[in-house]
Amino acid sequence: MNLTTENKQETREGVVLARVSNAIVTVTYNGSDFETKKAPSTDEINKGAIRAAKEAAAALEGGRQS
To answer: Running along the chain, 66 residues long, what does each successive block of 10 average in pLDDT?
Structure first.
């Protein structure tokens, strides 16, 4: 998890690596609230990154041919 601040705007970023068969999926997921200038919680970023990695893995597995 990485929290950065630029011009008083916080952004939080998380990275998830997942292996699907012989492929490695890397998901970089970040977020920022431009109204409050605060970053989403670590938990929210983790859940989003994991959800995106699962969707990418499912898409790869669905693309297999027998």
So the answer is: 92 94 93 95 95 92 64
**Phi and psi (nearest 5°) for 65?**
-115, 140
The model scores a pTM over 0.85: no
User: Is the Cβ–Cβ distance between 53 and 28 less than 8 Å?
Assistant: no
Q: Are 55 and 63 in contact (CB under 8 A)?
A: no
Q: How many helices (H) and strands (E) does the chain have?
A: 1, 3
Cβ neighbours, 10 Å, residue 3: 11
